[in-house]
Write a structure and sequence with these properties.
By secondary structure, this protein is an alpha/beta fold. It contains 19 helices and 23 strands. Among the domains are: about 10-110 and about 245-305, P-loop containing nucleotide triphosphate hydrolases (Rossmann fold); about 325-445 and about 510-585, Rossmann fold, CATH 3.40.50.300. Belongs to the ABC transporter superfamily. ABCF family. Translational throttle EttA subfamily.
């Protein structure tokens, strides 16, 4: 089989295409190897291999057991699974960062492995540019040695043949790394990823800015195996598009943990799924994975009816992929149908689906923004910077508004002005008399690390009131995929995605009719994302969501507020793809 067809081989059940394009089910046993016998029994195309790897966590629970995987040179693999299923742990083992595990890890001699963790470390004694250049030592050394060899050729006693041979080897390696114009490559990547100014002090950077610096450094380093844990977090849509293009042409092996479904569709050639301790490998991108996963769930006869229904719905949408400006009317009709059918929050929760508590009935007037202006002092230059000027729009009832734009363009500032936490320099915001605002911030500082999940969300209330409905608090918490023993875990022991789900469950309890969510999709697994999408669609109020997740924005949004930079903000009737299409045509207003 070809290199692309053999990109990933797993010990668990998977489909492997055989010569001639025919599919055959295979149980591919990984070859017997050990780290001390580098390469023994391992096919030459493999760059990394795990054999019978297992991890046991607190309480003796096995996160996964006897997992064997082989990664081929040039494979592009997306990693999916529920929060807490072990995705980051598995990646740390591949990276060589985690050494406490059962089984064996083997990396081919000479193969360089690069890893982007969720919270990367930078050298606090160096500025942004110096931290990035730290990852380019090989490129800098190659260029310096090439210059030295070239100079040595001019010496009267030079061994010309030896120098020519070395120069040819250096040239091949420099060509391979594409680092002849290193300064240009660095500046291009920094601009594309919206990295802070090169002389900025890394100690004052936000978490998102630090991640962009670390990602830029790692991509420019160009390791043979590139391991990325949530690489699209804190990236705007244009930066994600650049990253997709970069990885599509990347010659090394790429393993990405991500919830960004468009990213997976555009980059992944394989999907590796972790599901309740098992690993499953599928050839294809995210949309193709939806089909294959649905088939697997049906074959196992353990299908969760709700998850399968959501997957089928998303697959149907993905195939049609047609946006419509009639989203508002269609959404209103769906809400009316739900109401007519006697929709109850308790039944939704019993089915394991997220439910957003309904607030008081919303009137026709929701939010009206008139002639807003906000100017901030630039932290780097010290000069005034206009975030937006003469900004006016009106949010209609039942709207789901996506807020998009580059980092630092003013999205969160707009939220703070609408909620009254910050005042504009000019203009004003009018709220309808029936409006009850609820805000889910990007920060999770509201969580108490010492409390259990149940204590943090329930506030010791056994039941939660949902309008005329009343449900058990534990059932409500379970609807956020926080079930059973998970509810007794301390918040401090949770993964990033699990903490985000706790944060959402707690902050959505307010019973508001207008909810504002700042980057709610960060670190969420795709099943929780689907459930959140359904909850927002069925919420009988108004939602305003800051997000860079294009798939999420396309699935739910009826309107877009786009911060396009240089103080320009556009209010658009339609979803994200429609907005992008109109923007390219130059008619978005």
């Amino acid at each position: 089989m070809s290199l692309l067809m053999r990109s990933l081989v797993a010990r668990r059940r998977l489909y492997v295409p055989q010569t001639g394009g025919q599919w055959a089910r295979a149980f591919a046993a990984a070859p017997s190897t050990s780290t001390s016998n580098a390469g023994g029994g391992v096919p030459g195309d493999f760059v990394c291999h795990l054999r019978d790897v297992g991890v046991t966590i607190a309480g003796g629970k096995k996160l996964f057991d006897r997992v064997s995987l082989g990664f081929l040179r040039g494979a592009k693999i997306g990693v999916l699974g529920a929060n807490g299923s072990g995705k980051s742990t598995l990646m740390k083992i591949v990276a060589g960062v985690r050494t406490e595990f059962d089984g064996e890890r083997w990396v081919k001699d000479g193969v360089r492995v690069g890893y982007l963790p969720q919270e990367p470390q930078l050298d606090p004694s160096k500025n942004v540019f110096e931290n990035i250049m730290d990852g380019l030592k090989e490129s800098q050394d190659l260029l310096q040695r090439f210059d030295d060899v070239s100079m040595a050729m001019g010496e009267p006693d030079a061994d010309f043949d030896a120098l020519l041979a070395e120069q040819a080897e250096l040239q091949d390696r420099i060509d391979q790394l594409n680092c002849w114009d290193l300064t240009y490559e660095v500046e291009k990547a920094m601009a594309a990823l919206r990295v802070p100014p090169k002389h900025a002090d890394v100690e004052v950077l936000s978490g998102g800015e630090r991640r962009r610096v670390a990602l830029c450094r790692l991509l420019l380093e160009k390791p043979d195996v590139l391991l990325l844990d949530e690489p699209t977090n804190h990236l705007d849509a244009e930066s994600v598009a650049w990253l997709e293009e970069f990885l599509q042409s990347y010659k090394g092996t790429v393993l990405s943990i991500t919830h960004d479904r468009y990213f997976l569709d555009n980059v992944a050639g394989w999907v590796l799924e972790l599901d309740r301790g098992e690993t499953y490998a599928y050839e294809g991108n995210y949309t193709q994975w939806l089909t294959q996963r649905r088939n697997r769930l049906n074959m196992q006869r353990k299908t969760d009816a709700i998850r399968a229904k959501q997957i089928a719905s998303e697959l149907e949408w993905s195939r049609s992929h047609q946006g419509s400006k009639k989203g508002s009317k269609a959404r209103l009709k769906k809400l009316e149908e739900l109401e007519a059918s006697g929709f109850r929050a308790s039944s939704r929760v019993e089915e394991g689906q997220i439910v957003i508590p309904q607030g008081p009935r919303l009137g026709n007037k929701v939010i009206k923004v008139q002639n807003l202006k906000r100017v901030l002092q630039d932290e780097v230059t010290g000069k005034p910077r206009v975030l937006f000027d003469n900004l006016s729009f009106e949010i209609p009832p039942h709207a789901i508004v996506g807020i998009v734009g580059g980092n630092g363009t003013g999205k969160t500032t707009l939220f703070r002005i609408i909620t009254g936490q910050e005042q504009p320099d000019e203009g004003h915001v009018e709220l309808g008399k029936t409006v009850s605002l609820g805000m889910v911030s990007q920060s999770r500082a509201e969580l108490s690390s010492r409390k259990s999940v149940y204590e943090e969300i329930s506030d010791d209330n056994e039941f939660i009131e949902f309008g005329d409905d009343r449900i058990n608090t534990r059932a409500y918490i379970a609807s956020f995929n926080l079930r059973g023993p998970m509810q007794e875990k301390k918040v401090q022991s949770l993964s990033g995605g699990e903490r985000n789900r706790v944060h959402l469950a707690k902050m959505l309890l307010g019973g508001h009719n207008v909810i504002m969510l700042d980057e709610p999709t960060n670190d969420l697994d795709v099943d929780t994302l689907r459930s959140l999408e359904a909850a927002l669609t069925e919420f009988n109020g108004v939602s305003m969501v800051i997000s860079h997740d294009r798939w999420f924005l396309d699935r739910i949004c009826t309107h877009i507020i786009a911060f396009e930079g240089d103080g320009k903000v556009v209010f658009f009737d339609g979803n994200y793809t429609e907005y992008e299409r109109e923007k390219k045509r130059g008619v978005a207003e």
